[in-house]
Model the fold of this input.
Amino acid sequence: MKNKIIGFLIGCLTITTAFAQQKPVTLSGQLIHFSNQVLVEDMSEYQYLDIPSSERIIIPDSAGKFSITFKIAAPNYFRVGRNILYLTPGDKLTVVIDKDNQAKSTFKGIGADANNYLVNTPFPKGGSFLEAGKNLKPTPQETLDIILAEGAKRKQELAAVKKASPEFIRLEEARIKADLLCSFAAVTSYAKFNKKLTSPDDYIKAFNDLAASKKAEYQKGFIDASLLKLVVYRDVADDMLTNTPANANVQKIKDYYMASDMVDRMSRENDKAKLLNYHKSIDSIKTAGYHEAAKKHLESLLQFGKGDVAVDFTAVDLNGKKVALSSLKGKIIYVDMWATWCGPCLAEMPKLEEVKAKYKDNPNVVFLSLSIDDDNQMDKWKQNVASRKADGYQWQINRTKLDAYNVTTIPRTLLIDQNFKVVSMSAPLPSAKDLSTAINKLLN
Done:
């Protein structure tokens, strides 16, 4: 009986733990200057390692109003537009997020304090505190001074955050340090292309000499794999690994870079036979989480891809008639996936028309413009097609019907041969010079 009771308690504990692993987060409010589909993007180190998912897509109404609930297992960083969010299981936030001006965004409710602080998070790809070169001053000393001043300002702002977890404070203190290191490194790039500097090389050398002691100070003892969930830390950690003695943190960081590079290369590979060669490479990743993520990514790519018979789907044409991809069998099919809210997609349209004109007299090639606009945006889709006077195959489909093709970002193109087999899951875009080469190779 005692063993049964213990077993029952352990079972209850297991069930409780399992439920505790996933708790809902609710975001509601208004999105300003956004398109009609917005992804709540995972910004942890698994951002690109995990298999792409469309489960956190916000579809606001015509006024930008929305509400979305999804589950997370632990506190994590996410992104909506340019705004970084820190979400904890159980958070319930009312938000106003402005895509064009992240500083105007506001958060209310459970978890608001941390997220209001994050509104002013500098952008790593913009050189963090250099603000895309705006803070590059006439002299190296002035530039160093403003970088340090911006870092000090962020520390003061963080100290004023009252309702946030100790873990959030720890991570954000590390972010400030990483942003400073990112700023130091970015001076080289922005100085090289600054036309106001008479001698960029001398400027860069002088700045690096001035910043050397601060750089060494911030890098000291800063090897910590738990900080990889910060984008800016991932940008600067590699520089700190040189001549650093091996330890568990160093190994995990190296494994992250190895897995990240491997997933990137696998995602670009269309040949499944070549993908098989990655099994051995993945085994060299020692950190379990990164090893499993890379392995799952490979397995996903091997399930369906180049050489496989295309997965059929049903869409609707401009007249509302149901049409199937398989109806185009026997021809070379170029599928261009787009949406009315996708700027880069619309920029490709003139090039697509040029390519279509090139093959207009060849009955063996068809070009399918496949809109993934939401079903409630049909009128907007039809108006866009009409305004461009686009002809040929113009279809619309719900993104969820394209799961086999793993469509998480657009523009995205597919190339299918006359035998209805996939030639490329990421074919050249209409503007790419090698698109005609790829099509002509199939024709020949």
In short: The longest strand covers residues 23-32.
